[in-house]
């Protein structure tokens, strides 16, 4: 068996050395031979292949454009597959795919200053409004009007996130939602046959799964504390900000009930330890039976066969809502003088292709924002992604308004953790958190000026 695997890799390595295939042709052959996208992508990352003869011939005579993303993790190769497929099929344009990775927003800002931004970029929805307010991205109403995408194909929250002052700046690519992960081995040992879905079953399972140094559901004092708090807040009908997004109000009765729910798991139900700094790691080692974390950890969780993990929608403890982020595709602004009609049309076609074929991207652990992409047989056959996608009608976002994300995430983590550590009452923690969040938001709005408001 090992010899067969070695022979496969050896053949593919020889293909790379000979320069026989374009990137797309190589990926197609590698996956057909049973090699994973991740392994094939690693082989393609060899700098020598950048000068591959077949790939150079594919680029010859084409309009070459740049596409930047923050996808430096396990999801990156799947986006690369999409880009390679587009480049292989399109006779006129070639997009160079760059996985920028860590510090992406800072690097984009630096590129804006140096006028070296790409023609198209993927950007996190939470931080998109700040970038728009700084002038990094340009309106794309004309492109959106010509694309085969429409508002009705997206959840309202994710579609509206790409708008500012009545102008469209981005097209939704995905939602990366909060996910409920359960260790089914531990669940079966305590005689529970079904994954918890509501408050009663969730609390009962957490209690049954807690014994000695093992816990049913560890409540984080670091990330993803904001994910937990906002999910419970929204399920309770609360809001992070007022209607015009000029003031934080999450110290409301709903906010207090949400944080009290988290605190009670530590001190009342005792289904979580005090000071849980890394519930995710505890889950991987079998010391924590259930967690809520981002969909981006799904592949790593499921690869751990000792857990027999289940992944799906968060428990609807108080109602139907869950935290989510989103990547959106946007056009950087400093290229406005360089984007000829031909380039602009090419960018629009590229964005449309990526969004409409996002079921391929979902293999990396994301949910396509497009309902059409989610309705494909390819996506429906993906598990647990297709099950997790049941949350799509209920997704909520911390943004998308200038200054909101930067003013909320760190602040609620700081003061929320104080309540969880017993250093502050729930009310005092939230009152102080909202006070600081509002100070930061006011500073952000002053920095962005009059052009920062969103519809």
Describe the structure.
The strands form 3 sheets. Strands 7, 8, 9, 10, 11, 13 and 14 form a 7-stranded mixed β-sheet that branches. The chain has a 5-stranded mixed β-sheet with strand order 2-1-3-12-6. The protein has helices at 2-18, 23-32, 37-44, 53-59, 76-89, 104-113, 128-133, 141-146, 156-160, 184-189, 199-208, 225-235, 253-267, 279-284, 298-303, 341-356, 358-361, 371-374, 377-380, 385-388, 404-420, 426-448, and strands at residues 63-69, 93-99, 120-124, 163-164, 167-168, 170-172, 174-183, 215-217, 288-294, 309-312, 322-325, 327-330, 367-368, 395-396. Strand 4 and strand 5 form a beta hairpin. With 455 residues, the protein is α/β, with parallel strands linked by helices. It is globular, with a radius of gyration of 23 Å. Helix 12 (225-235) packs across helix 13 and helix 21 (404-420) runs antiparallel to helix 22 (426-448).
| Domain module count | 2
What's the number of extended β-strand segments? 14
Distance between the termini: 60 Å
User: What Rg is obtained from the alpha carbons, in whole angstroms?
Assistant: 23 Å
Query: Low-confidence runs (pLDDT<50, min 5 residues)?
Result: 450-455
What multimeric state do the chains show? single chain
Helix vs. strand class: alpha/beta
Helix content: 40-55%
Mean pLDDT: 89
CATH architecture of the largest domain: 3-Layer(aba) Sandwich
The DSSP helix count reads 22
